Amino acid sequence: MEYTVQRLGQLAGISARTIRYYDTTGILKPARINSSGYRIYGQAEVDRLQQILFYRELGVGLDRIKDILNDPSFDRIKALKEHREQLLGKRKQLDKLIANVEKTIALHEGRMTMTDQEKFEGFKRQMIEENERKYGAEIRAKYGDEAVNRSNQRLMNMTQAEHEEATRLANEVKATLAEAFQTGDPSGELAQKAADLHKRWLTFYWSEYTKEAHAGLARMYVEDERFRAYYDEKQPGTAAFFRDAILIYTGLDQGKR
Question: pTM for the complete prediction?
């Protein structure tokens, strides 16, 4: 079956403007242009749009989606199975969050009591869900499902004291990095201190630290527009500066950054 822009938009639940934009960016080209000048989309384009929308739901940027779909090794069936597993994981997390919210409502209405531990457990589940929604696809693609699942489990096993220390370290990283950026020297004492604090912070979430993984994450801070926007919010160029500092810290600063 073939679709015009309007009909494809209705089928997918998105605007015709979005589909036209996908054409101009090259991520979803029509199968052909008919004699009246209308874009016409076939089954292959419908399937590709489904993949695009799956990845968009997972928070992946369009440039990254385009790279994924244009990769000759892209396996459509494998991708669908991965989407299914991620959606099932999200549903499980949502069920837990809903249960936690229901408990909290009951607590405030005086219908039950809720321990501090239960409140903290709900908070950790919410953090995992938010991270999966924003960055799950990229992180899983880079480090694999097993590593990400171990990291999530490590967070769930974290005590409140450990979480407070991890939060303190995160704030110290941010403050030290801002000061180091002013020096302009990623190899300087302050920049290297920020990289070391970052490593210490990561060990609260990673089951195993490696220099290669640390360097890979630093590169992602620049390559991924959302990470880059976070670090560059107040001082543009901070993400690249931090990447360089970490690459120097890990000794993996040779070649392209």
Answer: 0.49
